[in-house]
């Protein structure tokens, strides 16, 4: 008994480390130590569990921990800075899969292999059996959704195909999966029939994740990633209910709630509701591919001459910057501009990139000073007094259609008002539309000049010209 | 109060705690926060540990070991990748 109470008190310590760690993680100054505290909380939770298990056969445990730890380390060590969104999506999928597998393992151990001729509800208790089904469902949705999100982030899968009757289809799959699981857990006494139904639940849930993510495009990716993150937490919480483990419930629920908040923040940044994003609001823009009228383009040499005369410059990074791995090149340009005495700032749109805060991570990797970064609300009124704006690989977040065309798919989304600046350079490979799939009238404005080419190449040329003429 | 009801209380209160903790986070930290929270969802590792305590090779143990490996990847990789992101933010400001 004493041992149980000791581990219970230690578990409280683990929860305290999670809570304090998460709190510190939400402040720039203390973020790194917060992450370390959370990792310590996790280590403590694992040690407590090993203590509780007592003397058992440790071969699987040691092997699993070593293999998992090694793979996790290797993935991070090999990752490029630009791959961060994919890596986060992948780990997220693993978390969801793990929760589902724990629930499945419990089901197989207690019901299928025991073959006691009783339902899961009779063996495990109704609450445990019900949450077990929930855990498999949410976990499998998280896994397939995250795998698909990773493929989309990598560019392996492109396009946002529309799925007919997607809403009803998804509802049908969720209800069907839940029904299969419910029948398996509460009504079937034959172990093999129950196992078959649970496999059906896994398949239906995995399909839900696919149907959910397939039609959702790039600009909405930050929302999807944080929603999947929330789901992986809820899957862990459901597993906690199934196992009767409070530590799992608490940690999982905190993640679930935090993920929901972040999802909400992303939705507000786009001025859309979560339902609207999930329905795939951007997919209706096919008809709006307008032809471009008069578009002016120039080469880096003449653009560099304009930059030389600029007192104030604002750089607007977008996903194209990350895709071209141009973060160091853009920092070099900023440094060259500062050397000639210009004021340089970066304007960060909250949903620029493919995950929440993507641009901040990418620019930090190139050691762009934190002080040069400005949030949209801080800098939007300054564009009117800015000599030159350089848009690097951003499109939808600077599209005036959000403001001027009520029928546009991005109508109402707050944008960076770059068009108010005296001169706008847009570095872009071509006039192809952004992920929203719509024309950008910014490119036709009189003060806009297109610099066609790969972001890294063009930025290197600009910085080179500035340095040569200095 | 039965154990299930206690768990429900814990669930609801933890939900409120999560909402309060993440309020008003600067956008700079959105990615690390998500990544760190994601690592925390690897807490299922402790569930997996309790299921693989025998040497036998049965379906349940295989499922449990898979869960253990994936959860450990999530935990170790998740905290490391978060630390790597934050190391580039660190020192300044």
Characteristic terms for this protein:
heterodimer, A: 470 residues, alpha/beta, Rossmann fold, 3 domains, 18 helices, B: mainly alpha, 4 helices, 73% helix
Helix/strand structural class of chain A: alpha/beta
User: How many helical stretches of chain B?
Assistant: 4
Largest beta sheet: strand ordering of chain A: 3-2-1-4-5-6
Q: What general form of chain A does the structure show?
A: elongated
Mean pLDDT of chain A: 85
Protein chain pair with the most extensive contact, residues per chain: A-B, 113 and 81 residues
Domain tally of chain A: 3
The assembly state of the depicted protein chains is heterodimer
N- and C-termini, Cα separation of chain B:
49 Å
Helix content of chain A: 55-70%
Low-confidence stretches of chain B: none
Structural class estimated from helices and strands of chain B: mainly alpha
Beta-strand level of the residues of chain A, as a percent range? 5-15%
Give an overview in words.
Chain A is an alpha/beta fold and 470 residues long. Chain A folds into 3 domains: 1-78; 83-283, no CATH class; 290-469, TPP-binding domain (Rossmann fold, 3-Layer(aba) Sandwich). Helix content of chain A is 61%, strand content 7%. Chain A contains 18 helices and 6 strands. In chain A, strands 3-2-1-4-5-6 form a 6-stranded parallel sheet. In chain A, helix 15 (358-365) links the parallel strand 2 (343-348) and strand 3 (373-375). In chain A, helix 1 (2-25) packs antiparallel against helix 2, helix 4 packs parallel to helix 9 (221-243) and helix 7 packs antiparallel against helix 8. The longest helix of chain A has 29 residues, at 84-112. Chain A is elongated, with a radius of gyration of 26 Å. The termini of chain A are far apart. Chain B is an all-alpha fold. Chain B has a domain at 27-89. Chain B contains 4 helices and no strands. Chain B has helices spanning 3-22, 30-40, 44-49, 59-89. The model of chain B has no long low-confidence stretch (mean pLDDT 87). Classes of the chains: A alpha/beta (470), B mainly alpha (93).
């Amino acid at each position: 008994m004493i041992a149980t109470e000791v581990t219970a008190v230690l578990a409280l310590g683990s929860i305290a480390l999670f809570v304090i760690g998460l709190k510190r993680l939400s402040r720039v100054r203390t973020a790194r130590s917060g992450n370390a505290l959370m990792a310590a909380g996790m280590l403590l939770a694992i040690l407590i569990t090993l203590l509780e298990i007592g003397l058992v056969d440790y071969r699987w445990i040691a092997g699993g921990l070593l293999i998992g730890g090694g793979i996790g380390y290797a993935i991070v060590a090999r990752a490029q800075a630009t791959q961060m969104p994919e890596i986060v999506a992948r780990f997220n999928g693993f978390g969801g899969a793990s929760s589902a597998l724990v629930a499945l393992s419990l089901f197989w151990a207690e019901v299928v292999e025991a073959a006691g001729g009783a339902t899961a509800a009779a063996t495990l208790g109704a609450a445990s059996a019900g949450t077990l089904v929930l855990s498999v469902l949410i976990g499998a949705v998280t896994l397939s959704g995250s795998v698909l999100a990773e493929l989309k982030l990598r560019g392996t899968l492109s396009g946002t195909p529309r799925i007919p009757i997607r809403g009803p289809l998804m509802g049908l799959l969720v209800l069907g999966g839940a029904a299969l699981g419910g029948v398996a857990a509460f009504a079937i006494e034959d172990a093999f029939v129950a196992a078959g139904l649970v496999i059906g639940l896994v398949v239906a849930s995995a399909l839900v994740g696919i149907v959910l993510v397939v039609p959702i495009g790039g600009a909405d990716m930050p929302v999807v990633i944080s929603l999947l993150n929330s789901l992986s937490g809820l899957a862990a919480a459901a597993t906690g209910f199934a196992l009767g483990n409070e530590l799992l419930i608490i940690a999982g629920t905190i993640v679930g709630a935090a993920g929901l908040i972040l999802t909400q923040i992303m939705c507000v940044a786009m001025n859309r509701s979560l339902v609207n994003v999930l329905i795939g609001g951007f997919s209706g823009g096919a008809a709006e591919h307008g032809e471009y009228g008069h578009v002016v383009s120039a080469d880096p040499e003449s653009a560099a001459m304009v930059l030389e005369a600029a007192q104030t410059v604002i750089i607007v990074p977008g996903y194209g910057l990350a895709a071209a791995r141009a973060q160091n090149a853009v920092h070099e340009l900023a440094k060259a501009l500062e050397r000639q005495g210009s004021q340089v700032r970066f304007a960060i749109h909250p949903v620029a990139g493919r995950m929440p805060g993507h641009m901040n991570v990418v620019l930090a990797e190139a050691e762009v000073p934190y002080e040069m970064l400005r949030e949209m609300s801080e800098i939007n009124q300054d564009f009117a007094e800015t000599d030159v704006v350089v848009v690097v690989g951003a499109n939808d977040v600077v599209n005036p259609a959000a403001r001027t065309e009520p029928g546009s798919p991005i109508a109402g989304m707050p944008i960076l008002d770059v068009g108010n600046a005296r001169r706008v350079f847009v570095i872009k490979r071509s006039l192809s539309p952004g992920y929203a799939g719509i024309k950008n009238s910014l490119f036709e404005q009189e003060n806009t000049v297109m610099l066609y080419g790969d972001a890294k190449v063009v930025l290197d040329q600009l910085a080179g010209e500035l340095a040569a003429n200095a | 109060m039965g154990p299930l009801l206690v768990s429900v209380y814990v669930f609801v209160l933890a939900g409120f705690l999560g909402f309060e903790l993440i309020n008003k986070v600067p956008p700079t930290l959105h990615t690390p926060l998500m990544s760190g929270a994601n690592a925390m969802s690897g807490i299922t590792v402790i569930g997996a540990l309790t299921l693989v305590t025998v040497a036998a090779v049965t379906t349940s143990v295989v499922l449990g070991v898979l869960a253990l490996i994936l959860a450990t990847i999530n935990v170790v990789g998740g905290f490391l990748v978060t630390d790597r992101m934050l190391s580039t933010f660190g020192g300044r400001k």
